[in-house]
Amino acid sequence: MEDRTKQNEQHGKCLEKGAEKTLIAIIICLGILLFASLICNVLVYLYFQQQKERRKEYYEDLDEEERRLTPKKLWKSIQENEVDVVLHPDTAHHQLSLNDDASQVRFIGSTQGPDRWYCVTGSNWFMKGSHYWEVEVGEKASWALGLATERINESRVIPENPENEFWIIRLRGGKKFEAVSSTVSALHGKPKKVGIYKTTKELSFYDAETRTFIHTFYIKYPGVLYPVFSPGSRDKGPLIIKKKKEKSNMD
User: Fold this and answer.
1) In the structure, what pLDDT confidence band is assigned to residue 20 with cuts at 50, 70 and 90?
2) Which of 49, 170, 202, 238 would suit a FRET pair with 136, their CA atoms being 20 to 30 Å apart?
3) For the sheet containing 225-230, what is the strand order?
4) What is the rounded CA–CA span in Å between residue 57 and residue 138?
């Protein structure tokens, strides 16, 4: 009987030692895993920091035009929101003339004097959703494009210094390229074809020939907005609204 008791005690001690060894092994394994995880996290952090530095160096090596170049996939997704915009003859200032299919507008008054921003709006109106359209401005010396609230139809003229009811870009006197809302900001370049992209809260402009980003307005206005077009008053060349069937996506 005593022998059996001693055997049980020895067996119990063996189990305890085995459990201790197992516990120690588990702790060691957890420590190794924790250390390996820490090393992996450090390596991943260092990798992404290196990639960030490389991207920064790459970006700094680009010129201004390359920095503003819209990636092809993003450009394609923007153009997928393309809509046909038709000018509304009843909203045109009397100093403007529209062609038969309401896709072109030109100034018909005197080209002498300061820039004047007689305008016409599109028949389309926007509130929510995404919409894209293009306008060919060519070599015109002055023009203005963008969005305005419905009050534009009262005056049919874009004010020289508009308040919070206009979001436009314009070319003045063939030289000054500007973004105009409640403030005026100088812009770079003079596109010949302008891509206009409206989302629910933003209005962005692009050089549609080169995919180059021009400017973005952030719009908080909750009501109806109309696309607005002014051919300026420095020449009698037309603004031409491109129709969907006339456009081809850039490769």
Assistant:
1) confident
2) 202
3) 120-121, 225-230, 143-149, 166-172, 176-180, 184-186
4) 36
